[in-house]
Amino acid sequence: MSFLSFSRRHFLTLFAASTVSVVAASVGSTSSAVAVTGERQRCLEVKALSGTVTLQSRGQIPLKAWSGARLERVDDVFETGLNATAMLQVDTGIGQIYVAENSKFRVKALLLTEQGGRVTELEVLKGQVRLSLRPFTNPESRFALYMAAGVTEVTGTEFGVSVQPDGKMGVATESGSVEVTAEGESVTVEDQMQTLVIPGQSPRPASPLLDDPELQMNRAEFLDGNLKLSGQTDPVNLLSVDDVSQLLGPSGEFDLVIPVTGKMSINLLVTTPLGKQRRYEIPLSLEREPGLIVIPEERVDETLLKQPSVQP
Fold first, then answer.
1. Using one digit for the tens of pLDDT, what is the confidence trace for 178-226?
2. What's this model's pTM, rounded to 2 decimal places?
């Protein structure tokens, strides 16, 4: 299939191996291997998007995405830019995938089993992705997300993941349940629960869902043309400062030195694994101490559905 064949068709899926048995092994399942028929009759279709969104097939240059485009091939890459969002539908109406700005994932596999099961796996490389999936009617159907820190697998639920620059992964379940596996250990994240996975470590025990983009500022002071800023947010969240993703500590703490020369303000964005966002602004003035201004929060999927789709 040429790259142009998936223009006007867009799909987001990932698979870590050529058979479902590898998926089962990755998530600690003891179920028997399932034969697959290969890559065919599968897709993820773009239903809404806003801003700069691209599709890239292996060995090809990125193309601008549009409503109705599909991803159908292993190693296809989907990426949103600054202030861009997208919503895709899994084939046969299995569910929807909501993608926040500055997020990226790769198709690992789209498989159809001999008994009609659909196996979908996505590798989330950065950013935040939220999924709403109906329960599967075929026992061979699976949906899994792969990240640097671990793997999540579901059969029908609404949940989201966040991936920080160093690979730390937040997983939050709004309804249903998700199994998260890392370093050979699994944690089930039930309805209204969340967990954090740090690369090289087992998943943390599930804790009550917060879905809270609050940012606490502990210190903000000017020093030698820089703003020294320290604070904390929920460790499963994502934090960006002036559109640059930042690292959070194991407890969500941060300690930043931000150049301020020529700037009127510093802009911060906090995003939860379920896509709730809150924007903050720090006006810069040497005449007063810097303080946070909070901009009303919004969900990624609610935002993008208000925007017009981009046509080719």
1. 999 999 999 999 999 999 999 999 999 999 999 999 999 999 888 888 9
2. 0.82
- Token pair for 190: 């039930």
Q: Is residue 28 situated within a structural domain? A: yes
What DSSP string describes 141-196? Answer: -EEEEE-SS-EEEESS-EEEEEE-TT--EEEEEEES-EEEEETTEEEEE-TTEEEE
Q: In what order do the strands lie in the sheet with 253-259?
A: 216-223, 226-232, 253-259
Between the CA of residue 125 and those of 86, 106, 182, what are the distances in Å? 16, 7, 16
Q: What CATH number did the domain enclosing 276 receive?
A: 2.60.40
- The CA distance from 196 to 146, in Å, is 14
Residue 98 in any domain: the answer is yes
Q: Which of 152, 180, 208 is the last residue of a domain?
A: 208
Residues 274 and 162: their CA atoms lie apart, in Å, by 8
Asked if the structure places residue 130 within a domain, the reply is: yes
> Looking at the structure, do residues 139 and 49 belong to the same domain, yes or no?
yes
Tokens of 11: 């799909």
Q: CA–CA separation, 178 vs 4, rounded Å?
A: 35
Find the farthest-apart pair of alpha carbons in the chain and give their distance in angstroms, rounded: 70
Q: Model confidence over 223-272: pLDDT tens digits? A: 888 999 999 999 999 999 999 999 999 999 999 999 988 888 999 999 99
Q: How far apart are CA 95 and CA 46, in angstroms?
A: 12
Q: Residue 23 carries which DSSP code?
A: H
Amino acid of residue 134: R
Q: Which domain holds residue 225?
A: 216-304
Among 8, 27, 25, 34, residue whose Cα is nearest residue 118? 34
The strand pairing partners of 175, in sequence order, are 158
Q: In which element (H, E) is residue 265 found?
A: strand 265-271
Examine the domain organization and report whether 171 and 235 are in the same domain: no
Quote the number of domains for the chain.
Answer: 2
Distance CA 143, CA 15 (A): 9
Amino acid letter, 139? P
